[in-house]
Task: structure prediction
Amino acid sequence: MYISKSNIERITPHGFRHSAATFLIQNRVDDTLIAERLGHTVNELRKTYAHVYKSMRNDMKNKLNELYSE
Result:
């Protein structure tokens, strides 16, 4: 009842798992620990969540450009 009134999309267990993994990656938790928690290898983790790593690489490039553009 409250979910339908809030206009929030329903999240599946798979979606929740994906959100939790993305949260851990973006907060710089060690890949080995995340992979172990999800039952993945580190390579599987990186392959599955490559889009997150790409955004992190872009963030790093932007930060380096800020630091060295002075």
